[in-house]
Structure to design on (256 residues):
């Protein structure tokens, strides 16, 4: 049975009022209408997690952060700890997003510290990996994905792997309107699952893999129907309730 996670990455968008309006619209849209095999996650900016957290209480909507620090507390100006996130009711944290890698210099080693800290504290790490346009054109896609997976998952073994979800996001597809072809997506997702099973010694068990990169209400049904796609990480199209709810609807159609 396929399960789906539809995750909205709001990035640095939405004021507190906008957060509340959008959260309410999504809650209204999914109430009484969400298949038990579909999970819906919103990841507002960290400063607005607290208000979203109050609104999602007793609903099926889940809450995630877009980043965290790996230390429990201390002198890390501007950072957010995992216990701060869990105390707000966050179940997930996005880690290793390509924007954090490229604009903020996050390395696989640094991301690995966060992934380990998150899963050890029972937070689900939504680990993003993906190749650039140049890397794809130079046939380096698999080398890059493998090295991101290997390095970011060091020390994440056994039961801890149950707290990991991978998001395959080709960097050239993020925010560009370009999407990978169905064949490219299926190939990458199957290889990611096999590679993790192999290096972690868990034959027959797989980690869920979401697709991200210009996923929207028009292409969702087709992309979510691909065999090894277990949901989507959605940026731009998660910022309006109509498009996000329409993607959730497509996920339900795939499940049924
Ligand atoms: P996009 O962003 O849907 O706007 O391409 C996806 C992401 O960055 O997670």
């Amino acid at each position: 049975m396929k399960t789906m996670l539809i995750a909205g990455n709001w990035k640095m968008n939405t004021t507190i009022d906008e957060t509340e309006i959008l959260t309410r619209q999504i809650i209204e849209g999914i109430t009484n209408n969400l298949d038990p095999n579909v999970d819906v996650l919103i990841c507002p900016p960290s400063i607005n997690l607290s208000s979203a957290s109050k609104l999602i209480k007793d609903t099926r909507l889940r809450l995630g952060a877009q980043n965290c620090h790996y230390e429990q507390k201390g002198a890390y100006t501007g950072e957010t700890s995992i216990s701060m996130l869990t105390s707000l009711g966050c179940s997930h944290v996005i880690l290793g997003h390509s924007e954090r890698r490229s604009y903020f210099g996050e390395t696989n080693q640094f991301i690995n510290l966060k992934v380990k800290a998150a899963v050890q504290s029972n937070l689900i790490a939504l680990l993003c990996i993906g190749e650039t346009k140049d890397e794809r054109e130079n046939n380096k896609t698999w080398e890059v994905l493998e090295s991101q997976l290997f390095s970011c998952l060091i020390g994440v073994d056994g039961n801890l792997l149950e707290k990991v979800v991978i998001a395959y996001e080709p960097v050239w597809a993020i925010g560009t309107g370009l999407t990978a072809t169905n064949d490219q997506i299926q190939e990458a997702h199957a290889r990611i699952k096999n590679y993790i099973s192999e290096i972690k010694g868990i034959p027959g068990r797989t980690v869920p893999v979401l697709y991200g990169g210009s996923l929207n209400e028009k292409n969702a049904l087709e992309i979510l129907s691909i065999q090894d796609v277990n949901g989507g990480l959605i940026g731009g199209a998660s910022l309006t309730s109509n498009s996000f709810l329409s993607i959730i609807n497509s996920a339900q159609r795939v499940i049924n």
Observations:
- The mean pLDDT is 96.
- The radius of gyration is 17 Å.
- Residues 29 and 245 are 7 Å apart (CA to CA).
- Strands lie at 4-9, 38-43, 61-65, 90-95, 124-129, 164-168, 209-212, 231-234.
